[in-house]
């Protein structure tokens, strides 16, 4: 297993639809065109898929096939539209290259969006998760039992976080050490706050301190961090509203207020 995290699918969590075999046969030639030559299991892109929660075996094939297919399909459609227009060949070639590049990199943008959306969902639910873990640990449950129990409770509240907790409990049940399971969790999520939480829990286990105290401290730190980010966003709200007001609201307001006066002056001078 090494440093790479493994994952486990469960029927308790939402799953994506599997790709039919006949579609896989069509996707494989396209996927090979864009697939990197490096080993997939040691590729940084694999971690990006884990961060996005895309853990089906056919997802990488669909991703690389989409890159190749869009890179060829969009220029072909544009060429069909430009065939009836007599324009500069240089401009048409530039447009075809630009559209092909956009189609090739569009799956990258989609993947980055999926990663950001999932990480935001996990970060929002993390303080509540730590509170429940503290309650379970202080009630007498071990950390492994608390992770399993809270993972079941979080399926409706945060499916992404529940999926990660289930993976941690599965890894612990498979015989992996707690330190390795926690490091794999931080690697799969890819959040700085989760990295800090994992480091704190590993240090608490190493020095023999109470895990509940470490979780409480981290939950309070995350709440303070969220409060500071909200206050910072509120402080910059006036500056962000300045440009829409100046360029969108004020011109219309100026036309409504000053327009009738200008019309009256124009009529008076034209008589």
Topology of helices and strands:
Layout: H1 21-34, H2 44-52, H3 59-82, H4 89-138, H5 143-153, H6 159-173, H7 178-189, H8 192-207, H9 211-235, H10 237-270
Structure commentary:
- The protein is mainly α.
- The protein folds into 2 domains: 21-118, no CATH class; 121-234, Receptor-associated Protein.
- It is built from 10 helices and no strands.
- The protein has helices at residues 21-34, 44-52, 59-82, 89-138, 143-153, 159-173, 178-189, 192-207, 211-235, 237-270.
- The radius of gyration is 27 Å and the shape is flat.
- Residues 6-17 have low confidence and may be disordered.
List the defining traits of the structure above.
single chain; 271 residues; mainly alpha; 2 domains; 10 helices
How many domains make up the coordinates? 2
How much β-strand is present in the residues? under 5%
Range of helix content: over 70%
Poorly predicted runs = 6-17
Rounded to the nearest angstrom, the distance between the terminal CA atoms is: 90 Å
Q: How would a textbook summarize the main sheet? A: none
Highest-level CATH class of the largest domain: Mainly Alpha
Structural class: mainly alpha
